[in-house]
Amino acid sequence: MSEWLVLTIAMASACAVVLTIAVLSNRRIAEDDDPSETPDVIEYMTMMIGVVYAIVLGLAIAGVWEARGAAQESVRLEAQALHEVSARSAVYPAEVRDRIRSDVDAYVAHVVDDEWRWMTDHGSLTEEGTRLLDRVRADVTEYVPRTDHEGQAYQPLVDQVAAVDDARGARGQNAGATMPGVVWFGLITGAVVTVGLIFTLQIRRTFRELLLAGLFSVLIAFLLFLIWDFDAPFGRGISATTAPFVDLFPHAAKG
């Protein structure tokens, strides 16, 4: 199911539920009921709970957005380190250089074509990707430099392979959902309480009041959807992409 379809259904459902409850509640109100008699303490508490929940929503959105940015940065660092390995291997003999570049390209192709989809579906890295990276590491570390020039390039190449491994590990840690279940419980409970409190203000069936109630519930549903969409940096619509790999290895990342 498309994320936009989920968003549309969620907002429409939230709006429909709130408006239905408002209309049904209004039928039970006596004709001589005066909405101006709402105690000031209720208006104050409603306002304060709304403010507190707005702060919580803001922190949640900032947290998942930061996690998405960190996930995209780990992809960039991984692709850049692989590019350095491929470029710096130019000082090695042709057969060694070609082997390193071929294995780097194989790793990139696997990440873009297969591992990315696996991360989306399972929230983890693949064993094949680990094996391909180990092969790149073996190509670099097992070669014995024969000249001073090759010797000077050896350690930086080893460091770049280590940087690839570190960035890959960070990508694996960010592959799943970042928001704990208890936080989701608090967000959803807070949404129900915040939306429910508008009925303590004796909302009427006028167009203006129903419109504001509907828009408020739609806004809450949209913000929760936004948090949910950002919560899996590699798994949903607004997610980290393979663009760094594709940009640096266009010949290898054709998928």
From TrEMBL:
Keywords: Membrane, Transmembrane, Transmembrane helix. InterPro entries: DUF4239. The keyword Transmembrane helix applies. Pfam families: Bestrophin-like (PF14023). The chain crosses the membrane at residues 6-24, 44-65, 182-203, 210-228. This is DUF4239 domain-containing protein. It comes from Streptomyces argenteolus.
